[in-house]
Design a protein that fits this description.
The chain is an alpha/beta fold and 422 residues long. The protein is built from 14 helices and 20 strands. Bound molecules: adenosine-5'-diphosphate, aspartic acid and magnesium ion. Adenosine-5'-diphosphate binds next to loops.
Length: 422
Amino acid sequence: MARIVMKFGGTSMAGTERIRRVANIVRRQQAAGHEVAVVVSAMAGETDRLVNFCREANPLYDPAEYDVVVAAGEQITSGLLALTLQALGCKARSWLGWQLPIHTDNAHAKARIGDIDADGLIASMQAGEIAVIPGFQGIGEDGRVATLGRGGSDTSAVAVAAAVKADRCDIYTDVDGVYTTDPRIVAKARKLKAVTFEEMLELASVGSKVLQTRSVSLAMKEGVRVQVLSSFVDDDAPLADDLPGTLIVSDEELEGLNMESQLITGIAADKNEAKVILTRVPDRPGAVASIFTPLAAASINVDMIIQNVGREKGETDVTFTVPSADLVRTQALLEEHKETIGFNRIITDGKVAKISIVGVGMRSHAGIAATMFKAMADRGINIQAISTSEIKVSVLIDEDETELAVRILHTAYGLDETDEAA
Ligand code: ADP
Ligand code: ASP
Ligand code: MG
């Protein structure tokens, strides 16, 4: 017998029919002799709809009230899944975030989970009851409902798995695993049998939305065994225990799996960044600090940064990227500090995309970035900015060239699924 936390995403929970399919998967998992808890997302599109209501009600909405509204989507699906399981003859009950409780900090709309009191949950699972938990929500130190940021149900699932010391956390979604790149963009993307925590963390943080970034860092920290797999399966499909999906594992475990190693593990694209250029910034110590200090104080995450070679004596252009959602605030802050910074003009471009290649193979092989730059140059794709880490290279390009760039790189690194292997 094992203890398993199962998580179902929005597409899997969209409507009565799909919830019934989910309930069947959960029933089969329990019938295989396991203790199970289930974490659910709101129905696909529901959170967007609720966010829009908040914007319409008050464009400068209070994050604590926003949380009251958007947490409702998961409350509905958790109740509906418990009802559906009961209709199948299973013992099931829902546990809302405040009931467990799942403690978070007070950063409404992007709260972090602290600890979870799991005693009641464990007792109920041991008694053969299926625990259904709405993802994305917890209770802040202020005693109010708090949500975890978009895609946060993955993190809820991993946190619950860590709290109940689950043997596995299965993340059910609308694709059957983690691929070399988004299979909806590249038909020849290849499913990975396993990927390391470190690579998955890097892939998630540069735009592979299959797992929320925080869920991966939490799984890595807590040593939670995570599998990504599909909920769109037939009743007689192999159980999750047969590991049909993709496992997120430690480096050592990956070596044990004896997988054919690739230089590049995956490619991700992110269209949610915007480029900012400040022209004619004084080329002197402290100038760059005067740009980024106000942005940091406003919690705006600056990603890529380039300081160009001085164009005229004593002046330079500074280019950087920020999340698109923060572009307007960024512009306002820079204008506010124009005198101190001393720039001439702000030029912005929201139509950019960041393409990243990720792989631990970069540590031991030279020339990986050069392959990327050459493959893009051969197809006339202009690179506007570059950033690197130990296992990642990212480039900023025109948004219209996103799909083309991902396909070219997928082929350039030999990742395309071959017909024999398919
Ligand atoms: P859920 O609603 O189940 O949380 P998401 O939409 O958040 O699902 O994540 C699943 C989606 O992630 C897939 O439909 C796919 O388009 C996208 N995706 C992006 N990169 C990858 C990748 N490397 N492997 C698999 N899926 C990916
Ligand atoms: N429903 C939330 C969202 O759409 C959380 C999640 O699905 O993970 O962001
Ligand atoms: Mg998701």
